[in-house]
Each structure stands twice: as C-alpha cells, then as structure tokens.
Design brief:
Blueprint lengths: L1 H17 L5 H48 L11 H6 L8 E2 L2 E2 L7 E6 L7 E9 L1 H11 L5 E4 L2 E4 L7 H11 L3 E8 L2
Antiparallel strand pairs: 1-2, 3-4, 4-7, 5-6, 5-7
Helix pairs in contact: 2-4, 4-5
C-alpha cells in the first residue's frame, strides 16, 4: 500500500503542474488585446454613425430649403418668417419638430431668422447649434449649392454665391469642436 500512496502523490503533483492555468502576464496580454479590439470597433461604429448623420443631413437640408422657398415663392421677401411659422407650414421633417421647437440630429436647436443680402429681408437664416466638427466639415460642402452664405461660429466660410473656402471651413469647424453653430443663409428661389 505504501507504493500506491507514493504513486498517487507523484501522480497528483504532475497533474497539478499540467493544470496550472494562465499566468498573470498571459492574462494582461489578453486584456490589452481585448481592449484594443473594443477600441477599434468603437472607432469604426462612431465613424459610421458620423457619416450616416452627415449623409442624412445632406439629403434633408436641401428638401427643407426647397420647401421654404416654395412657401415664400409668391412673396417679395421673407419678412415675418419665424421658426414657429415654418413649423406650422410643415417645412421641417416631423422627426425634427419637438413641441414648438426644431432640433437637429445632434440635439441642438434650429432657429429661423431673416437677413439682408441685397434688399431688406431678401434672405432667411437657418441657425444650427451643437454641430460636431466632423459633420460640420462634411455637410457644408455637400449643401453649398443650396445656400447663399454659410458661417461657422461667426466665421464666414462661404461668401454670397461663392464656393466654400475649404481652409476656412476646416479651421472654423475645428475651433468649435463638438459644438459648432452653423448658420445657412438662403435666398429667394
């Protein structure tokens, strides 16, 4: 019996050595690789969502502008145009209308005002707040044919009937970071 006890002890030791599991270093390497994988996936999803928001904006904004211009086609100018008035006229997508306000897809507000390009109230402004840098730089060149003037954070990036100044656009969008205020000025149709 002594022999069998000795054999069991030796056999138990060798089994324990084989079943040692992962070392701390191996676990740390696995955790780092997992974290890098998650960061890569997050970046990819974030970029995809940013592009999707910009593309939807570039599709909806021209429709809004066209609807406004059609509603005011028989008027000399935009005198009296307000955010509430345009909500009631149905120019904004229902997904943008929250009670008596208009919210853009980034959670900022959209407000309407009148402006002068040549004669009093001959232009309408659409002010968008909280526009992130990436979407700011993507959307404006995509809609420049539909607007007369664009400012970002008070900086003119598109002069009246000119092309967007891409250098000024990049600088202005970067300066505003995740919370740019973009003002589109549209004229009569």
């Amino acid at each position: 019996m002594n022999q069998s006890r000795t054999f069991r002890k030796i056999n138990a030791r060798s089994i324990r050595k084989q079943q040692g599991g992962f070392t701390l270093v191996e676990l740390l390497i696995a955790a780092v690789l997992l974290a890098l994988g998650i960061a890569g996936i997050y970046k990819g999803v974030s970029d995809y969502m940013s592009n999707d928001r910009a593309n939807r904006e570039m599709k909806e904004l021209p429709s809004i502008i066209t609807a406004i211009q059609q509603k005011y086609a028989q008027r000399q100018n935009y005198a009296g145009a307000t955010t509430a008035g345009l909500i009631n006229l149905g120019v904004f997508p229902q997904s943008w209308v929250v009670g008596a306000t208009v919210q853009n897809r980034w959670g900022g507000t959209v407000t309407v005002g009148t402006a002068t390009l040549v004669s009093a109230n001959d232009a309408l402004t659409l002010s968008f707040t909280q526009v992130p840098q990436a979407e700011c730089a993507d959307v404006i060149p995509g809609v420049e044919q539909n607007v007369r003037v664009v400012t970002v954070g008070g900086t003119s990036v598109k002069a009246n009937n000119a092309q967007t100044d891409m250098t000024a656009l990049g600088t202005a969008c970067a300066a505003g970071g995740v919370s740019n205020t973009v003002v589109y000025t549209i004229g009569k149709a």
